[in-house]
Q: What sequence folds into this?
């Protein structure tokens, strides 16, 4: 079977902090360092989503990248861009917004919409800085 | 077994359009949007090829990257760079030049030459723009 | 006077060829090489526009980058993106579409709109490939 | 005179919002769009500082880039990185944190230290996103 | 099981040459080209390490990226950065410093420390230039 | 006068060290740090050359970028790439190979050839790492 992976990059700029509400301020600071600054900090996040499927012989597409982009925009970017990940995002409420947690949460938000288009979600990657990234491939 | 993957990036600048000749102009436009512009458009494509094998104890190489580059240049870059993908390329004749189709077609052009060098082709990735990419891992 | 420069990047993907209609095919080929391919080739162009002015004490802006982006989109990107620079663009008609000529032509298209916003156009830069660029600073 | 420019890039990840306290919420929103989100947003900022001087014949340096980096770290990065530009930074207090204002303010913080090293500050550039930047060359 | 991959990039700038001491100078030159220059050459290497594990519900981390960075700095970067790979590095002694060999050697240096942190090493990737890279996924 | 600047990027990978032969080893180490490692280190250098002139109405070029590239290749890249800057390069003999010194020396090597083509050399920029760069604009 000739399955091909298509890849779309989107970007969002958000504030956040790392914080475990069950812990003391001291423990939060020693664990999360500058990332626990109470007044927040922020990033230009890159979101890279991989989707797999067979090529449609009519279009030559696995899935129209514009459709993938629309799903990512409505389900992720519109909710996260120029927002506070800890305070403003319904699907991150009460979560500690590490890049790991954000990646898994985004997977859960978009998987169904991508399957409806007849394709399989392969991975959700987030670049938080040019040195730090996370990639999630779903449950195995 | 200690297999290592080596990766080579090449670049080509080409014109193309997305077009299904069995369809009306209207359907082509609604499906492919600006990509169906009759006078063509173009891209700086990046081609990223991964090849796998064991390290030769004499050279420390899986395969000399210069040999991989030569295969990519003679079989792909010389044929696609500063060309029209739809009109000028023998192995894309009568194909709809989506990035998916181009990636699969390049795989078919280079696989044999790489195997002759004693290595295995792992994947062919094409970055069409900084946001849109495709990767093909062969039939499974 | 505290003048500050603001910088906006936009992108467009276009087909073109280099061709002097007064010359023979032979002379075109020997001068322009692969860039004179009759069936066109193309690029992902980057457009980088610099604009200068004093900071408005009310907004903290020299000029809202969204307004600069709108000018660039309506005057340049909408006309060039997914088009053929030689055939589809009103302000490049009958011009040889070298990056130099495109940069000067874009300057002439946008200068007035930027001055209407109370700012000065500093430069128009175009990256044609990752190795080849052109920058125009206006007449001196 | 053989003056040479040396260039150092540093990075900081901060939260901020654009807000004029003299304006209504409505006017802030219509002017600054998503950038006025009350719960903040954030960026991976790049700071690019250019410094000019003659080459010291003993060292071959205009100025040791490690010394320039130390000035930038102590005067800028330590104060801005993983902080809220509006709330946590002494030299941005009560300012509207547009990239223009941040660039001018950084210039004022570092100019003296660089002159003490016998070099001249040429410019302070900030990349807020991959598309939006600001550069300040001092008063003219 | 919800395993997530975390990715850290580090950089080192080193001199090296490709050389098989059992071969004649002629054979070294014809095999390795400019890479066998007796007076060495060098690169800005990028090291990209992927590590996998389950998310700790207390921290939201697979592993604190600062701990991963510390392992990479003490076991790799401190030993390779601003050094000669052939002469100065204990774990590369008497090896031919192809990127393949360096990647496998780095894997062997760091695997144990990462397992002690409760995570699994997934891959070691080295970018030698912007066009040439190698990735090692361990023995299979 | 409508002068336009054209810009060409080339790359070279070289070994070097920073060393003042008149100084003790101790002073060299304290001044140059890791850059004085006796067994050398190295970089992937980027060379970015800007050249200015009027557009030739016949070609649409300031100067054919292929001609600029040829000058840079024969006068600079062929001599520096996969070489030791301190030992192998005629025009760097007995110089301390700081990026400042290399940039000025490259200017002197290429200025005449560019003027012969009817254009003016504007600047020579060298990126030594992604954070450290130098630019030289000639004597003023």
A:
């Amino acid at each position: 079977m000739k399955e091909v992976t298509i890849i779309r990059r989107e970007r969002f700029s958000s504030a956040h902090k790392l914080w475990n509400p069950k812990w003391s301020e001291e423990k939060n600071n020693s664990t999360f360092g500058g990332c626990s600054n109470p007044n927040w900090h922020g990033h230009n996040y890159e979101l890279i989503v991989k989707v797999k499927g067979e090529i449609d012989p009519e279009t030559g597409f696995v899935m129209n990248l514009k459709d993938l982009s629309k799903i990512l925009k409505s389900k992720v970017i519109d909710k996260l861009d120029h927002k506070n990940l800890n305070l403003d995002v319904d699907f991150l409420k009460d979560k500690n917004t590490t890049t790991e947690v954000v990646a898994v949460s985004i997977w859960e938000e978009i998987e169904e919409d991508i399957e409806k288009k007849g394709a399989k979600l392969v991975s959700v990657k987030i670049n938080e800085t040019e040195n730090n990234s996370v990639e999630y491939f779903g449950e195995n």
Observations:
- The helical segments of chain F are 25-32, 65-80, 99-116.
- Chain F has a mean pLDDT of 97.
- DSSP finds three helices and four strands in chain F.
